Amino acid sequence: MTKKYDYIIIGQGITGSALAWKLYYSNKKFLILDSENKNTASKAALGIYNPITGRRKALTWNVNELFENLERFYLNVEKEIRVKILFKKKYL
């Protein structure tokens, strides 16, 4: 029997994981292919995001809308997996 997928995701870093959740919420069938490598940028960054980017240390474009969507997304995933994954921290 052949399985049919709507999407194949190559790599399960932060982007591949977020895409997988979006597809899951859209009732799409997907397959994730990921290496067994333990030393990846996504594992080191652990999904950290902040509003300041670039050499000029300026606010990220559309930061308010972006962060509202990020927070809503992570809170929805937390509900689904029943594990706290969003930890807000203040920084200087």
Notes on the structure:
The chain starts with 6 loop residues before the first strand and ends in an 11-residue tail after the last helix. The chain is globular. The protein has 2 domains: 1-46, no CATH class; 49-92, no CATH class. The chain has a two-stranded parallel sheet with strand order 1-2. It has 92 residues and is α+β, with helices and mostly antiparallel strands. Helices cover 39% and strands 13% of the residues. The mean pLDDT is 87. Strand 3 (52-53) and strand 4 (58-59) form a beta hairpin.
Can you summarize this structure?
The chain has 3 helices and 4 strands, in the order βαβαββα. Strand 1 (7-10), helix 1 and strand 2 form a beta-alpha-beta unit.
Number of helical segments with 4 or more residues: 3
Q: Considering DSSP H and I runs of 4 or more, what fraction of the residues is helical?
A: 25-40%
Total number of strands? 4
What pattern of helices and strands is seen along the backbone? EHEHEEH
What is the 3D shape? globular
Indicate how many domains the architecture comprises: 2
Strand-residue proportion: 5-15%
Report the C-alpha radius of gyration, rounded: 16 Å
Distance separating the two termini: 56 Å
Protein structure class: alpha+beta
> Which stretches of 5+ consecutive residues score pLDDT under 50?
none
Keywords:
92 residues, alpha+beta, two-stranded antiparallel sheet, 3 helices, 4 strands, 39% helix, globular
Topology overview:
Layout: E1 7-10, H1 14-25, E2 30-33, H2 41-45, E3 52-53, E4 58-59, H3 63-81
Parallel strand pairs: 1-2
Antiparallel strand pairs: 3-4
